[in-house]
Amino acid sequence: MEYQDIAIGLDVGTTKIVAMVGRRNEYNKIEILGIGRSKSIGVHRGVVNNITQTIDAIREAVSEAEHSSGLKIKEVIVGIAGQHIRSLQHNDYITRLDFENVINQEDIQQLIDQVHKLVMLPGEEIIHVLPQEYKVDSQSEIGEPIGMYGSRLEANFHVVVGQISSIRNIGRCVKAAGLNLSGMTLEPIASAEAVLSKEEREAGVALVDIGGGTTDIAIFKDNIIRHTAVIPFGGNVITENIKTDCLIIERQAELLKIKFGSAWPGENKETEIVCIPGLRGRDPKEISLKHLSKIIHTRVCEILEHVNIEINNYGNEEQKKRLIAGLVMTGGGSQLKHIRPLTEYITGMDVRVGYSNEHIAGGDNGFISNPEYATSIGLVVKGLDDKKKYLCTSDILYNLDYKKNSELFSTKFYNKKKSHGYKEKFNSSIKKNKKSKSFLEIWADKFRQILNDTE
């Protein structure tokens, strides 16, 4: 098996760190070759707060994934999220002096570079610039302006901003664990890769990933990501509240939430009681399931109210921006009993729980398609797509610049024609093709530069 055929996703979460190894089979489905999981005790709300503990947890998860897959893991694609991530909308334009020629990728890149020069708050940096619609002269709502004539190129952008120190800390942990960083992506975008269909992205959908420390939101419309947000609390807030109100330890509170918890208190009776073993010979503690569900209900409502605010901030109330496909929930928090009808009640939208069955090969279904692994699977999908894109780009360069002009590469011919500028022509062609990168690839290059600056 060649390493270019596989990808390894590393999900550095608040409650767990997951390393997942996967490849595509002949039916274009993802086969999970190995998975490793460790408890995350050095990350708080998506942000590293203990470098040593995070490095150890990454090594443990990677070691387990290596053992189950039989492969030596050298590089990973990492998800990035956390309470430091925020987004904003921005409009910008450039005036083209060479308006006699059509708009090309260089014009778009110039516009994106101009957005990257925006002044942010101290300690923040633009890490992602996503174009929405373009406008050429007086013509608006253009999806792809390349090839059009025009003197003024304008666009609406979705700009993602993050704390540069938080990004560097994640990169440092990955490198210190003995791994190379092959790429990175925002975790809500990775989760969307795993659980959303093309039809949902086209119709308009809000993805809500309820993790341990944060709740990530990504809104799509017309196959374009329109809004992202990170709410700085998730399932851990519910566990902490149960622990405090019921006077029990965290492990007991988490088990109580998973086994007996409900987001809808109306179904439990006052007489339903569960006994929790006492500590060190102390008497067992009796907890009312009615009281438990009320605690959970309060915290879940707070999370969903913030989700509703973000959906309204996007503009869902406008007819043109309406999210026809509703809302898709994923992440560990989406498995809480009765959370789906409660979400429908609060948001007024159709809701489904997102599973990764569409991408996973038949034999791998089961616990791996569980919503809590959506980000990990999405990272594997993204890693494989990036490798495929790279190989395709290499083939294109070969076909355009070598095969089609093979006489250019004959040493004898090249030496004979050197005076006619063939070398300059070829280098210019290669340089032009290398500039035609996707926006995610441009961000990846920028992110790698940030990590290199930490060394």
Walk me through the structure.
A hairpin with a 4-residue loop joins strand 12 (205-210) and strand 13 (215-221). The strands form five sheets. Strands 3-2-1-6-11 form a five-stranded mixed sheet, sandwiched between helices. Residues 393-436 have low confidence and may be disordered. With 455 residues, the chain is of the alpha+beta class. It has a domain at 198-357: ATPase, nucleotide binding domain (Nucleotidyltransferase, domain 5). The radius of gyration is 25 Å and the shape is globular. The chain contains 13 helices and 18 strands.
Give the topology, please.
Elements: E1 6-12, E2 16-24, E3 30-39, E4 43-44, E5 47-48, H1 51-69, E6 75-80, E7 86-95, H2 105-115, E8 124-136, E9 139-142, E10 152-163, H3 164-176, E11 180-186, H4 187-195, H5 198-203, E12 205-210, E13 215-221, E14 224-231, H6 235-246, H7 250-260, E15 273-276, E16 285-288, H8 289-314, E17 327-330, H9 339-347, E18 351-353, H10 374-403, H11 411-417, H12 422-435, H13 439-453
Parallel strand pairs: 1-6, 6-11, 12-17, 17-18
Antiparallel strand pairs: 1-2, 2-3, 4-5, 7-10, 8-9, 8-10, 12-13, 13-14, 15-16
Helix pairs in contact: 1-3, 4-10, 6-7, 6-8, 8-9
